Amino acid sequence: MFVRSDIVGKLYVIGVGSSDPELITIKAIKVLKKVNLVFVPSADGKNSLAYDIAKEYINCDVKFLNFEMNETNQNADINSKIITKELQDKDCGLLVLGDPTLYSTFFKISSELARLNIEFEIIPGVPSFCAAASKLKIPLAQGYESLKIVPYNSKKFQDSSFEDDNIVFLKTVRNVEQLESKIFDRYNFYFISKLGFEDECISFNKIPHECVNYFSMVIAKRR
Q1: 3-state class of 14 per DSSP?
Q2: CA angle, 193 as apex, 158 and 71 as ends, to 5°?
Q3: How far is CA 88 from the centre of its chain?
Q4: What radius of gyration do the chain's Cα atoms show?
Q5: Which superfamily is assigned to 11-123 in CATH?
Q6: Residue 66 forms beta bridges with which residues?
Q7: What pLDDT, in 10s, does the model give residues 74-88?
Q8: In b/e form, how buried is each residue of 161-195, taking b as 16+ CB within 10 angstroms?
Q9: How deeply is 220 buried, as exposed, middle or buried, from its count of CB atoms within 10 A (0-12, 13-18, 19+)?
Q10: What average pLDDT score do residues 160-181 get?
Q11: CA separation (Å) from 52 to 61, 116, 145, 169?
């Protein structure tokens, strides 16, 4: 990869896990302590769960970036230019919930950063469903079992049938009644919402509708 001569900094894309600051990796903490600026993606430009998780490890300035939390790449060009400008004279971090390689905000801008020949490194984080399975003390899969990860807010998955041994449904915010009816006869399932928060909600073979939100998930295991 060609690295631009006018950019002396490097971008570190840092996975911070899903809720518990103690689950941040040692490598992520080391990077957070050495960068000169940390970018924080945010839907409203001022609030961020990723920042709340990582803030005790940050020793530098923080800049919030306005990211649309949907399937569009709106603001990608603007955010890429903001990041590029700061990288001209400093190393920077970009916080990402969970792991950066799984449904993360970073890949809304990665192609634009690549076009601008920006050097970046990805620091893995603990995905929410791995933390949830650990909390529940259950395996996500064993032996030769299959495991499917599905963003259930997507229409194409809401209309699908499921045959896998184990399924993780993320972002279960729409049509939860339909999901519950689809899997109830063939799967035992765990509903988890706001893992690690004071209002954490966990239920077995039932989806409490009052607990459903963007941070809800369902782990289903074939009977």
Answers
A1: strand
A2: 45
A3: 27
A4: 19
A5: Tetrapyrrole methylase, N-terminal domain (3.40.1010.10)
A6: 42
A7: 677 888 999 999 999
A8: ebebbbbbbbbbeeebeebbebbeeebebbbbbbb
A9: buried
A10: 86
A11: 15, 30, 36, 25
Domain boundaries, the chain: 11-123, 128-222
8 A C-beta contact, residue 28 and residue 126: no
Query: Are the C-beta atoms of 19 and 120 separated by less than 8 Å?
Result: no
CATH of domain 128-222: 3.30.950.10
Q: What is the mean pLDDT of the chain?
A: 89
**Which residue in this structure is represented by tokens 């001022």?**
46
Does residue 64 contact residue 118 with C-beta atoms inside 8 Å? no
Quick: pLDDT tens for 28-65.
Answer: 999 999 999 999 999 887 789 999 999 999 999 999 99
